[in-house]
Amino acid sequence: xxxxxxxxxxxxxxxxxxxxxxxxxxxxxxxxxxxxxxxxxxxxxxxxxxxxxxxxxxxxxxxxxxxxxxxxxxxxxxxxxxxxxxxxxxxxxxxxxxxxxxxxxxxxxxxxxxxxxxxxxxxxxxxxxxxxxxxxxxxxxxxxxxxxxxxxxxxxxxxxxxxxxxxxxxxxxxxxxxxxxxxxxxxxxxxxxxxxxxxxxxxxxxxxxxxxxxxxxxxxxxxxxxxxxxxxxxxxxxxxxxxxxxxxxxxxxxxxxxxxxxxxxxxxxxxxxxxxxxxxxxxxxxxxxxxxxxxxxxxxxxxxxxxxxxxxxxxxxxxxxxxxx
Length: 325
Fold this sequence. Notes:
CATH architecture of the largest domain: Alpha-Beta Complex
CATH superfamily of the largest domain: Spore Coat Polysaccharide Biosynthesis Protein SpsA, Chain A
CATH class of the largest domain: Alpha Beta
Number of domains: 2
Low-confidence stretches: none
Radius of gyration: 21 Å
Largest sheet: 6 strands, parallel
Number of helices: 10
Oligomer: single chain
Structural class: alpha/beta
Number of strands: 22
CATH topology of the largest domain: Spore Coat Polysaccharide Biosynthesis Protein SpsA, Chain A
Strand content: 25-35%
């Protein structure tokens, strides 16, 4: 099986930041989201990943050339029409997929390794598989209607139910496993001027094909649309994966400088923090960052090589000062 990652979009909900930095390269606990995702995919035994790029593609391509591939083959495809929607980004990868099995995942979706591994295992006997969560559905969410039988949820409708069929409405997650040829449905969706890959799945479903769905555990995934989403993911990773010993080693040199650290925190290498600062909780600081005197940082992602002036307060924010100079 191959993985296809869609990393071409603008990420407009992130504001000014993604005009200068691809959303997939924004760090969570000092590691770009795209790197997290590739490592999670590799941990599930997938050795080949196709990545569709578009907006700020040179930055992503440059990152991938420097990225330690360590036994995984990365194939970059330029999606020239990415601005027309995710299905156009995906269509740029079709010549690499052909009739092969694949999992499709956007670059701004993080999922716990154990959940993705379980999802792959549960899907083994099915040709088309979606994922859902049972948390509260909001108006902005795409929904699916499913009918459950012996633990298998068969999809009977996307965004609308089928009259006369007993079903439950679930919140769709941006994961797709395909073990059949979907290319004709992608082409038909493009001809109909559709913008999302789920539109092709809907056409597939309308042809009386079987689509199933499996539940992903609430709290084990992050759909990174906004700054708030990134900060929530950063806090989750800090709490779950950053060890107290690692924090202590990085902060040891600051203990005599009247600096207050409130865990959880991740401090990068070669940082300079001046006196009388308060850092944390829920803060990750990238390598070679300089923080001036009397500064306060809470619930924040600080990019590498940033320079924060004295008497600055940063809260509930992502800071990449060097990008705007």
